[in-house]
Prior knowledge:
The protein has about 600 residues and is of the alpha+beta class. The chain has five domains: about 90 residues, GIY-YIG endonuclease, CATH 3.40.1440; about 120 residues, no CATH class; about 120 residues, Nucleotidyltransferase, domain 5, CATH 3.30.420; about 180 residues, Nucleotidyltransferase, domain 5; about 55 residues, DNA polymerase, domain 1 (Orthogonal Bundle), CATH 1.10.150. Helix content is about 45%, strand content about 20%. The strands form four sheets. Strands 12, 13, 14, 15, 16, 17, 18 and 19 form an eight-stranded mixed sheet that branches. α16 links the parallel β16 and β17. The longest helix has 29 residues. The protein is globular.
Amino acid sequence: MSFDSAPFLKQLTTRPGVYRMYDAGGDILYVGKARNLKNRLSSYFRSTGLHVKTKALVSKIENIEITVTDSETEALLLEQNLIKELKPPYNILLRDDKSYPYIYLSKHKDYPSLTFKRARTKKEQGKYFGPYPSSGAVRESLNILQKIFKIRQCDESFFRNRARPCLQYQIKRCSAPCVKMISPEDYQKDMKRAAMFLEGKNPQVISELVDAMSEASRNLEFEKAAEIRDQIDFLRHVQEQQSIESSAGNIDVIGLAIKAGAACLSFMFVRGGRVLGHKNYFPKLALEQGEASLLGSFLAQFYLSSARSNDYPREIIVPCIPDDADLLSEALNASFGVSVKINHNVRTDRAKWKQLAQSNAEMSIASFLSKKENVFQRVESLRVGLELEEVPKRIECFDISHSSGEKTVASCVVFNDQGPFKADYRTYNIDGITPGDDYAAMKQALTRRYKKLKAGEGKWPDIVLIDGGKGQLGVAVNVFEELQLTGIQLVGVAKGVTRKAGFETLILPGEDGDKLLNLQSDSPALHLIQHIRDEAHRFAITGHRQRRDKARKTSTLENIDGIGPKRRRELLKYFGGLQEVKKASAEEIAKVPGISKTIAVIIYDHLHLD
């Protein structure tokens, strides 16, 4: 059985991360990182231009797992950790921690230096900054720091034996402390600012550069402004805090995602302060089982039913408080012989890990739902449930979205035998109706959609789902009769009495009246309908917000709660534009004056909704 790449690639995120490739026996083949996971993994499955070694690797792939990270830097560090841990046969194996370079601040009394170091040693009593992602990045960073702060980078013997300034002074990359061209006090000020910048304690240096860039722009010195902008970007990259590296101990971080009747628990394992990887589990979701119930029952089985005495966490970070949390904690303490904390509300590095685990759970559940065998099982179950003669190959679903009648938008999403077919998704701006009239909006959307179909544009669906009760379905029946459309199964999807997922009622129109169908809550057919309905709802809301925002002439940042004109100005001034804001991690955004860590996370999440 070969790896079916099409549905897998279709749902992949464009965010940075790490991917792991496995063979049919579940053995690791290759670990890689990507700035854009979708683009990188797509390159493995192109039809031409592949290296022989890459072709051999691809021929063995049976499964691919991904871990989303906040930045490419974090992806690189996690990749190195995984290569050392898993030793994949198709990777060039890294030997030891010398792969992590540092910036070293010497202990010199008056004129300390900033230099490149491959490894920390006890003999040197200075201060280390890092680790950083690559030696090239550190050397370029030191080069820029040298330009800005004019800090020396020569060794001690060279420094002590100078009688006149060297070339670095002539090209304005050193203040020549070796011949006292700068006082110890002024030099210490420069060094202190450089050290504070590397520690990420405040954004004063960047603010000064931003002001300089603005002044250059006002003076029409655009080349100089662009150069300063590049320096700001690289300086921010150097001092980027790594959420993949920390001084914390052994922690398990858990993300949980439930969608369309399926559940995914994503475990991220932190050992010795490093994220070593993650593993996904897809337990069967029981009737009416919520997040707390599922989490509690799964954690008990995971930790108490297997011998983990050699590798147990001292802390478990969970997405919500599990059922019987106190009882579970006592059982874990007794089983491991040490205190094990179960935490929900966490901050700093733990909060970053928690967010990463949740992102990976959401990505993994999307990948699980897109797998060909799972999709086929659900579509076949739908055929049986609706008593159709043939397996439906194309399903379309409609939904309506508006804000108190403002800027109504109808969505049409399309699923085929491989899952969502986003190329055929459409939105319809609804005009000329009474605001808030969902029936009129549905009629307009269906009429516009299927008039084109009747004229020979597009593909005929086998099933059309209408998100709503008998009223919305009645509108669809009338439209189909007016257009004389036949051979298409109409289905209304109405929420049950409890309005909870798993209790939907399907309405099938007929000559003898509507037929009500209640599928079992664990039915794959119902899970497929929930998935399609939720996707139509999401797409309708997205289309409505875009139309509303365009009408209000707002920017992306203006849609974020807590971001007023002043904070927007600070964000754009600090980063130099909206595109750079989108590239930044939450930690970088939090360095902007007036932006707290909480607001930074809100901004990051809003800008990375995929």
